[in-house]
Amino acid sequence: MEPVSLVLGSFLSALFAMPCQGGMDRAMARLKRGELDPNHNILRAASYARWNASLHLLQAHWDECIEWARAQDRYGVVNTGRWEEGLAVRKQLNRRMSRVHDKDMAEAMGLGDGQYKEVQTAMRDLLAAEKSEKADPREALTIAALDELSSWAGWDQVPPPLKRAFKAETNGFADAFRASIGELQATNEARWKAFQKIHAALTREEILANTEHGVEQNEKILAELGELRSVLEGKINELQANEQLVNTFLARILDRHVPKTLWADEFDSIVARWRSASHELVAPRNQAAEFEQERRRAKEALDGGQLEEAENILATLRAERRARREEEKAQQLFEQQQREARWREEQQADAELLKEQAEIVAVTEPMRGAALLEEAARELPDAPSELWADWLEQSGDLAGREGEIYAVPGALEKKVDLLSEVAGWRGAGSEWARLKNKLGNALLVIGERGHNDSLVRAVKAYDEALLERTRERTPLDWATIKNNLGSVLSIMAARGNDDALPRAIKAFGEVLLERTRDRDPFNWAATKSNLGNSLSILGERGDSDALCQAIEAYEDALVVWTRDEAPLRWATAKHNMGSVFRVLGERGDENALQRAVRAYEEVLLERTRDKVPLQWAKTKSNLGNALRFIGERGDNEALRASLVCHDEALEELTAERAQALHDMATRNRAKTLALIKERGL
């Protein structure tokens, strides 16, 4: 039994390829009267069927044409123009398809009377099986087809899958029709036999049509070939080639429809190209024996007139060689990737070993550990990467702590360099803003020690961080960075930058809108302390009320920063408040000077030389200043104590560690020493 898909195209050809205008008119009238389901588009279904049938015939003609074109006739002529012939067949069938709309089936398919009668007989068998015999077979066929379509459009007895097919819920008419044929094949033997007869009749007509076409073409070719041979007889004899090669050349001339006046020139041109190709195939190529063997095979085919065979041999050889090269290239690439992967794994392992070594060294030698950690980061195979950035930041933190607490020369600068590099790689975003804030903090510490350029860079870093971490997006992070910015501006103000002071005070005021005591008490205290610093600078410039406000700010901070909870923070606020009392004492308040001395002495209980040497030295120097002011008013013991404080402070405040603080402490010691000498002590 033949597959359903093969029978479908033939049945559609017989059933719908002969449209009857009267039947179509009646169908449209029924549609207008409401007798057909509105969801059923009869024109769409019929058109689809006709086109399907026509394409089926087109494919059959095309296949037959190709097979015929490849066959050799008794003269050994191969029709190398089969593609052009195929195109001609396509055009002919397209014309047939265009006539399908207004011609009956016999005319559209080019069937003779006897042939068409066989088809009609088969159709009558079909109608008899359905008990739908009519007087006029063609009209009966059309009406039966339209009735069947209309029944499929939505009558109650129609199976649901077929109903859905015409409502565009399935793939459409062809799927529904296949389903109906499948059901028919299993249930209605009489109707199935009618289908088979139709298929056999139509297939026979295809074969007959192609056979007649082939005979006609062969006769035409033979006539042209005979004339061509007579014109080129001399050149053919001179060539002394085998008959198949000659026929190949002649067929080429015929296929190209070369004018008779150019036959000789075209023949000479073809022969010249053939000889050139043959000569190339004997030229040495210094390749493997297999390569040369295939070239010899190609030359034999070329000399025998089998040009296509020669081409195929070379094309196959080239494709095989290319495939081998691609395979070798792929293998080499794979091996290279494997080597690179192993190298990367080894490099990664080496970098991790160095990091482990750095962590061991950092226990007792933080600066050397930081250097090893930086080296490890730069040995990572994927650098720059997240891991690279993390390790460089860790290295900077190690070095930065040594610089901040122990004033190791170059340590803070190294942290700044590493943070700048990582931030530059980040480019933007939340992590970039976090790094910019850390960079500003490191620059702030460097700036505190006398490098004013670092203070300017710190302001820039904080301003950049605030572009990303806005008050609307991250209010507490914004407040932290804003607070740090205010701290830098306060230091700049203390060094004579008049524009920086109001900016600092404003910044701290804005921060306190987010950093409330209830919401974030610890950082609220930090901002209060920083505000006190700015107000104390303003007070030093003559605003006594600002000094009182500064003391209030420090006292607020000390409510949260207790000595037990935050000893170093407590010491910082206490130290700064002592400095305000010292300024008040300079202006004549004796009690304020005593309070300043007590404050510094309390601070030194936490700011020990072992714990925070630079901060201890700074406090010692300020205590020495307070004692000098007391000594200026007649207390010689205070002067002696002041000199001791300055001497001790300068042991830590060296020029290498903190140039600005060293210079200031040196000047203050000189003032104390001058008073002592003046009094002959």
What can you see in these coordinates?
This protein has helices at residues 4-16, 21-32, 42-70, 82-99, 105-109, 113-130, 137-152, 160-165, 173-187, 189-231, 233-239, 243-255, 263-280, 289-303, 307-362, 366-379, 386-406, 411-426, 430-448, 452-468, 475-494, 500-514, 521-540, 544-560, 567-586, 590-603, 613-632, 636-652, 659-678. It is an all-alpha fold and 681 residues long. It has 6 domains: 4-219, no CATH class; 241-280; 282-359; 365-469, Alpha Horseshoe (Serine Threonine Protein Phosphatase 5, Tetratricopeptide repeat), CATH 1.25.40; 482-558, no CATH class; 561-681, Tetratricopeptide repeat domain (Serine Threonine Protein Phosphatase 5, Tetratricopeptide repeat), CATH 1.25.40.10. Helix 2 packs parallel to helix 7 (137-152) and helix 20 (452-468) runs antiparallel to helix 21 (475-494). Residues 1-83, 93-112, 129-179 and 195-215 have low confidence and may be disordered.
Helix-strand string: HHHHHHHHHHHHHHHHHHHHHHHHHHHHH
Helix content: over 70%
Strand composition percent: under 5%
**Count of helix runs:** 29
Distance between the termini: 133 Å
Structural class computed from helices and strand pairing: mainly alpha
Runs in which pLDDT lies below 50 for 5 or more consecutive residues are 1-83, 93-112, 129-179, 195-215
Mean pLDDT, nearest integer? 76
Describe the SSE topology:
Blueprint: H1 4-16, H2 21-32, H3 42-70, H4 82-99, H5 105-109, H6 113-130, H7 137-152, H8 160-165, H9 173-187, H10 189-231, H11 233-239, H12 243-255, H13 263-280, H14 289-303, H15 307-362, H16 366-379, H17 386-406, H18 411-426, H19 430-448, H20 452-468, H21 475-494, H22 500-514, H23 521-540, H24 544-560, H25 567-586, H26 590-603, H27 613-632, H28 636-652, H29 659-678
